[in-house]
Amino acid sequence: MSVHSKLYEGKAKIIYTTDEPGVLLANFKDDATAFNAQKRGTIADKGTINCSISSKLFQELETHGIPTHYIDNPSPGQMRVRAVKILPLEVVLRNIAAGSLCQQTGLPLGTILKQPLVEFYYKNDQLGDPLLTRDRLYLLELATPEQLDTITHLALKINDVLSNFFQRCGITLVDFKLEFGLDAQQRMLLADEISPDTCRLWDTYAGSDLDGRVLDKDRFRRDLGNVEHAYQEVLQRVLKAVDGN
Ligand code: UDP
Q: Rounded to the nearest whole angstrom, what is the distance from the C-alpha of residue 20 to the centroid of ligand 1?
C-alpha cells in the first residue's frame, strides 16, 4: 500500500488516501485539545497508544458482529480504515452521570443511570457541538429515521460489548462518544476512534477519590496530572484482557 495525499486533518488524526480503492490511512497524533480546541497540548505517545487501544476495541466489536471501518495496523500509530462518509453526529452513550450531563441537568457526578442514555450532538465546531433533539436532527436532515434507528441499536450493543470488555480490565465505562459513517454500499459502519480521548474511564477498584480513579482525557481537561500514565495504564489493561481471551 502506498500513501497518496492528505485528505483531511482533524484535531487528533490525519487521514490520507491510499492506492487501494476505498481504503484510507489514519495517522493518530499526540496533539490534545479540549473545550472545543480552546485548550491545547500534547500527550506523549498518545497517537500510538490511542491507535492500539482503538484497534483492539474495534476488533473486539467486530467479533460481536458490529461493523466497523477498521482494517488493520500497518505500523504504530497508523490504522488502515474503510472509506466512509461520516455523518455529522456525535453519538454519546452514558452509563454514569459526568461532564455536560451533570452541568446541564444538575445530576450529581457519579449517579448511576437506570438505563444507558443515548444522545446526539451536532458535529459542528463553529456551533460548539450542540445537543440535538430528534426533530432538530431531522429538520437539518443529518440522518433518516431508519439510519437513526440503526445507529441507536448499534450504539446500545457497542455499549454492552465495551462495558463488559472494560469490566474485565477493572475499568468502569462511564460514557463515550461514537461516530458513524456510510460506505460505498450505504452500510452503516462504526468509524473514528474509541480511546481515552473519547471515553470516560474510571478505575473500578482505585478507592473512593473520584479524581484519583480517572484514566481518560479528563486528566488533561482538568489538569489532574499523570495524563500519559493513565493512557498507558488503559493500554496495558486492554492488551492483558485481549491476551486473556
Ligand atoms: N466526547 C468526545 N468528543 C467531544 C465531546 C465529547 O469524545 O467532542 C466524549 C467525552 O470524552 C465523554 C463523552 O463524550 O466521554 C461525553 O462528553 P460530555 O458531553 O460530557 O462533554 P464534555 O464534558 O467532555 O465536554
A: 33
